[in-house]
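Researcher: I've been going back and forth with a colleague about how DUF308 domain-containing protein might be arranged in three dimensions. Neither of us has a model we trust, so I'd like an independent prediction. The organism is Luteibacter pinisoli, in case that matters for your notes. Sequence below.
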Amino acid sequence: MPFPTPKDAPVNSLRNFYFLRAGVAAVWIALVVMTAPASPAITGALLFLYPAWDAVANLIDSRRNGGLRANPGQAFNALVSVITAVAIAVAFSLRGNAGGVLVFGAWALLAGLFQLAVGIRRRKLGGQAFMMISGVQSALAGIHFIIQSFADAPGIVQLAPYAGFGAVYFLLSGLWLTFRKVQIVR
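Model: Here is an independent structure prediction for DUF308 domain-containing protein. You can compare it with whatever you and your colleague have in mind.
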């Protein structure tokens, strides 16, 4: 197998990043399942951690791809995710699970739209169809969570499939980039 070339670096970096995102989502889901039914403090912490990790992930990704100035969508998404994490903590402390789910839903809607936009922008790198589908699904799930937060707000265990679908999409994108590269090399 030939050695990677410098032109492979963006694809390799993106592939590894997608595997990291899938792994972190899987760990979050495992924590949710292991702690359910969680105490309010654990539930609030896990709700806070999901968008907080998304902020960190967007910073990592933008840094690997030219920085925040070259990636204004990711910079904005990171900022929105930080604000969301703080807002979840506040909303959860004031309104409990319903408040946390409302903010989580609004964030899922916005993050999904940003993910769709980034996927469209990166489509030439490959593996982005999964990211675009994930973005649309995230936006729709966000709308669903918002509506549910005003009725019978779902518990954190019911939010785990949202993260599960995200993990699958990141894994599929990483695998696409892996096998696409092998096919190109041959």
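Researcher: What would you highlight for our discussion?
Model: I'd start with this: Helices lie at 9-35, 40-64, 72-95, 97-121, 128-149, 156-185. After that, consider the following. The chain is about 80% helix and 0% strand.
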